[in-house]
Design a protein that fits this description.
The protein is 26% helix and 22% strand. The chain contains 2 helices and 4 strands, in the order ααββββ. The N and C termini lie far apart (37 Å).
């Protein structure tokens, strides 16, 4: 008998991350989820992906920073950031990297997290 092999699912400790990686994964999930996509919490997410193809000017950058800051304040309460700690870098049309300098409220370490919005 021949059958299609199914991929291995999450094991007891297989897909868990902690520390800096957990914060980066949480930020990536938050920033890459458009508001309204999570059916059990329609407010969860960030509208930054809606601005990927807007005009590359300072106004769009400030609006993106405000979207990111608001999402972090509402849904990533395990870190502390200010608006000045968020940087938006455009490498081309639709290619955007977000850098967030955040302080973890779990161990009070400060780190920079780079989230590439074109990877998901």
């Amino acid at each position: 008998m021949i059958s299609v092999a199914m991929p291995k699912m999450i094991t007891q400790c297989g897909m868990l991350v902690q520390g800096r990686e957990a914060i980066k994964e949480g930020l990536s999930l938050l920033l890459n989820t458009p508001c309204g996509d999570l059916w059990c919490d329609p407010a969860f997410g960030c509208n930054v992906r809606n601005r990927l193809f807007d005009t590359a000017d300072r106004v769009t950058e400030v609006l993106m920073i405000e979207d990111i800051y608001t999402a972090i304040q509402n849904f990533a309460q395990y870190i502390r950031v200010s608006r000045d700690d968020i940087t938006v870098t455009r490498r081309g049309r639709g290619e955007i990297t977000i850098s967030v300098k955040a302080t973890s409220l779990l161990d009070y370490t400060t780190d920079i997290y780079n989230i590439d919005l074109t990877q998901m």
